[in-house]
Amino acid sequence: MNVTQHRSISEFAQLIEPLLLEKEAENNLSLGILNNRNQSKDTIMLSLYNGRGEIVYSTLRTPPHLWILPSIAVDSKSFISHLAAYLYKEGFEVPGIIGEASIVRYFIHSWEQLADMKPELHMEQGVYELTKVNALPQKRGNLRLACPKDTEWLVDWFKQYYKETNELHQLQGAEQIVEELIRGEKTYIYVVNGQSVSMVSRARSTPNGATINGVFTPDLYKRNGYATEAVTVMSENLLNEGHQFCALYTDLSNLSSNSIYTRIGYKRVGESLVYHLIEK
């Protein structure tokens, strides 16, 4: 098993994209990074080859984020132990892993044999895909694009969102994140009777799909179905733009949000795990 590090994003994408596209919705994170090449200049890209010189797997990381282990069909997961050994031997920083559940588990087991680090399970995620939106019984509001005048209160909403999703490392940079989302026209506000009641963001795009994230409703407006309506409208808009599907991640421990997305028309296509690796 050989590991190759790539310097050219376009070259790496050309090699690995056919494998990633076999499960496009599941691999939206890797594909989204490769698709947004202007923002991935610092990305570390590795490919794994078998003894016949055939590419069998890949991984990538954009510091300071986690290593991504995509969902790629393989005959054996033994290559993951080779990948772990390569990362350890070459001195790559490995703050954590996100990716297809069974592959992540195998990597964590291999890494524990090598490094004096403690794995901490951060989240079990469902990967969902939608190709057709189920009709809503009611739509009480409209989505509007967030604008600079929304920045102050949106920062507060995003901080609440990060606390709810246990992404506390994002709190310090919340203002910068919000400013970038507004500048990139990514975040939308769901407005009912003139009142902002929920939010949703469009994230990365893949060759045939688009990803949704940042779904949040403040406590005052929870349990009114506003998030359901916001995600439904956003999903419809993305499909109408020409995307063949929408994808999103859910926290599998949050049963209510999973049921909401199912009602809209999302179907679970995979499972992803997020592990942080802590020095002992």
From TrEMBL:
Q: Coiled coil: which residue ranges?
A: none
PROSITE patterns tied to this protein:
GNAT
A Pfam family reported for this protein in Swiss-Prot or TrEMBL? FR47
UniProt-listed Gene3D superfamilies: 3.40.630.30
UniProt signal peptide: none
* Limits of the N-acetyltransferase domain: 141-280
GO terms, molecular function: acyltransferase activity, transferring groups other than amino-acyl groups
Q: What's the name of the protein?
A: Acetyltransferase
Q: Which organism is it from?
A: Halobacillus andaensis
Q: What is the lineage of its organism?
A: Bacteria, Bacillati, Bacillota, Bacilli, Bacillales
